[in-house]
């Protein structure tokens, strides 16, 4: 079982330090960002299990971040804010937050909320039917859980890598051009080079080979793109 990772988005250093310490003491891996503009790129390129998201950030507010994340992910989000009005709570939940905590707060309360949300997500995922699971060539992908294993071992893929591998697992043997993969994996392809796909494929292969060095499920098709072959 992999350690769960929490992304803390908080611009007040003393609050961030307390949250980081409590999360680490409770056995979680922690990443911290103080800028709202960094959140979407980070989430798109890294595997995260839950976000503690401050509402009032200096560059972009938490509601807007939450709204953008919900366009491509159901990643659990707990919003933290100094505001306590009911309208803010309603807006937070309307934009897709899973829970809401007002400052000042007890760090122990935050950790209790974190554990509750993660437990709820896990319990919901155990009720998924077979349609949400893909099994192919010793890969098992649980779509709603955003989790994939190879030969029974967890593959720590970024959200983008997960989408690309899903495309291949669902279309074994079909050749995809870089442009086709790009359109599938990115909601906005503006200023994104199709060479980004080469980097993602390289990273996926590397992670697979850490489990089975000889495995080569994703193969290059010269002059066209890539395809997935059965192992």
State the distance separating the first and last CA atoms: 25 Å
Spatial extent as radius of gyration: 19 Å
Overall shape: it is elongated
Name the CATH architecture of the largest domain.
3-Layer(aba) Sandwich
Mean pLDDT: 84
CATH class of the largest domain: Alpha Beta
Fraction of residues in β-strands: 15-25%
Strand order of the largest sheet: 2-1-3-4-5
Key terms for this structure?
Rossmann fold; four-stranded antiparallel beta sheet; alpha/beta; Arc Repressor Mutant, subunit A; 12 strands; 231 residues
Give structural notes:
- By secondary structure, the protein is α/β, with parallel strands linked by helices.
- The protein has two domains: 5-126, Rossmann fold (3-Layer(aba) Sandwich); 130-228, Winged helix-like DNA-binding domain superfamily/Winged helix DNA-binding domain (Arc Repressor Mutant, subunit A).
- The chain has eight helices and twelve strands.
- The protein has helices spanning 13-25, 39-45, 62-69, 86-94, 107-126, 159-170, 178-185, 195-209; strands spanning 5-9, 29-33, 50-54, 77-81, 99-102, 133-136, 139-142, 147-150, 153-154, 175-177, 218-221, 225-228.
- The strands form three sheets. Strands 2-1-3-4-5 form a five-stranded parallel β-sheet, with helices on both faces. Strands 6-7-8-9 form a four-stranded antiparallel β-sheet, with helices on one face. It has a three-stranded antiparallel β-sheet with strand order 10-12-11.
- α6 (159-170) packs across α8.
- The longest helix has 20 residues, at 107-126.
- The two termini are 25 Å apart.
- The relative contact order is 0.10.
């Amino acid at each position: 079982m992999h350690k769960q990772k929490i992304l803390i988005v908080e611009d007040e250093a003393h609050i961030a330090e307390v949250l980081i310490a409590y999360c680490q003491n409770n056995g979680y891996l922690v990443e911290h960002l103080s800028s709202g503009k960094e959140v979407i790129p980070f989430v798109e390129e890294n595997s995260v299990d839950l976000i503690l998201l401050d509402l009032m950030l200096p560059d972009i507010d938490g509601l807007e971040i939450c709204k953008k994340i919900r366009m491509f992910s159901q990643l659990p989000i707990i919003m933290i804010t100094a505001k306590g009005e009911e309208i803010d709570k309603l807006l937070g939940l309307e934009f897709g937050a899973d829970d809401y905590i007002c400052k000042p707060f007890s760090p122990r309360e935050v950790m209790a909320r974190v554990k509750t949300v993660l437990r709820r997500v896990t319990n919901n995922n155990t009720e998924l039917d077979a349609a949400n699971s893909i099994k192919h060539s010793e890969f098992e992908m649980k779509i709603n859980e955003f989790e994939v294993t190879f030969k029974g071992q967890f593959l720590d893929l970024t959200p983008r890598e997960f989408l690309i591998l899903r495309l291949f697992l669902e279309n074994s043997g079909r050749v995809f051009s870089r442009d086709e993969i790009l359109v599938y994996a990115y909601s906005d392809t503006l200023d994104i080079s199709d060479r980004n796909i080469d980097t993602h494929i390289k990273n996926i292969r590397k992670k697979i080979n850490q489990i089975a060095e000889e495995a080569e499920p994703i193969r290059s098709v010269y002059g066209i793109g890539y395809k997935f072959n059965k192992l």
